[in-house]
Request: fold
Amino acid sequence: MALPKTKAQIIANVADAAEITKAQAKAAIDQLIAVAYKGAKDKKGFTIPGLGKLILVQRKARTGINPQTKQMMKFPAKKVVKFRVAKAAKDAILAK
Reply:
């Protein structure tokens, strides 16, 4: 399995593909990340067409079992961030 790309490698790839400087590519990626974080807090979430959607979800309170002690535990309700992969991304990655 290949190692994941670092942020610097991604910036270099974007800069080369778009024929812009690395500083411009870094600014664009950083702005996209900032907009995604802000958009995820919105009820509609933040969508990147062809890639997926970043959403904030309210999880209900639940009970579970501690695997070490086998005792019942209560987990409180909380908000979690989820990423839903777009169908186009699934098709492109899983296509044979």
Notes: The longest helix spans residues 22-40. The chain has two domains: 1-40, 44-96.
